[in-house]
Amino acid sequence: MKKILVIFLLCMVYVTTNAQQKKIWNESKKEKTERLAWWTNDRFGMFIHWGTYSLAGRHEWVKKRERISDEDYQKYFDNFNPDLYNPQEWAKLAKAAGMKYAVITTKHHEGFTLFDSKYTEYKVTNTEYGKDALKEWVEAFRAEGLKIGFYYSIIDWHHPHYTIDRVHPMSPKTDKEYDELNKDRDMSIYREYLKNQVTEILTNYGKVDMLWLDYSIPGNHGKGREDWGSVELMKLIRKLQPEIIVNDRLDLKEYAGGWDFTTPEQFKVDEWPTYNGEKIPWETCQTFSGSWGYYRDELTWKDNKQLLVLLIESVSKGGNVLLNVGPTGRGEIDYRAESALLQMGDWMKYNGRSIYGCTQAPDEFEVPDNSLLTYNPKTKRLYIHLLDYPLQNFTLKGMKGKIKYAQFLHDMSEIQIAKPHGAWGKEELAAQDINLRLPVVKPNVEIPVIEIILNE
Questions:
Q1: Is residue 8 classed as helix, strand or coil in its secondary structure?
Q2: Lowest CB count within 10 Å: 168, 235, 342, 424, which one?
Q3: Is 416 helix (H, G, I), strand (E, B) or coil?
Q4: What is the spatial distance between Cα 296 and Cα 328, in angstroms, rounded to a whole number?
């Protein structure tokens, strides 16, 4: 009996110790919700991928895609001089598009930093441009009232001690070749470099609202939490910026405090993402075309309706959208991205109320055909986004007695409520349904929105 008791106690010690190991930061669910409140309210942000790869003009992964050596890639550093860089214009464009926050690449996989780091010579202040581009960016975006976020690549294709892995430009084919290439590389030196640079960006630019780390590649010839020193790194981040919001790419998914939101990339989710059976904060990062960095000849650009549906549908499932621009080597936003953002801004000017502060509608509301619903839990207003404009009679099932007033959001013009109508104009009164009488002519907006003021 004593032996069983001893084994039991040892097991309890192990379980307790293991649980402690899985906790990086102490925070209640309520505290986390409050910390993320600005972000879940704002819903729409700008992602910016900018580095020396913008001079190549053919994807931010050009070094990997074309297996370019450090020596051959150096020409992009040597010629980097964005003489037209005006972050004030970028910030004004983001604001005009209806965006509330922005995230910029302080360092992408190529290893080049847009900030003046003490730990590398491969930085913007050593280019012909000569200034701290990140400092200018932070000041400009803050001046427009936008929250700021920093992307930082934990991958580094330039650092001499970053071990070559399967996504590295020089990745070989065999284990023997990996061993040979990495024999003089030491990840412990790179881990210190990583920690030092993250410390720099989180201490030299004031309050940082979001940190976007990218990315872990567990598995054969990859890298995970042990390679990055993720647990200690996240503890450092939480210490330096206690209010910051951090994504989920440090390979710390099962650690409490190891991440704040998940990041589905380049696709729309089918439903609100969950983890361990609970709905979790999420944000989809998306491009206008097929590249994050500037790509001169890339032609698969999404149209205005596709982009608006992406935003509306994400909010309708409780999520955010981080929409990317890839500035040119001269420091200007691609004209195609600028045009797309201004079109989105035209819609957001009149219909942003159906996005900001909104989320997935309660299950009691049935989604009408060819529509998307969003809901503001504070104002208790329901928003119906008409993806395919209906012919006059628009039936809302199960809504009888729930609607106090209905109007178009873009001009606040009343929409009359009537009885439902069935086929061939024959009245078919459904006990719990109501009918909205819409004008024959579609309003002059890409996707009209009906605002429903609900009864208390």
A1: helix
A2: 424
A3: strand
A4: 9
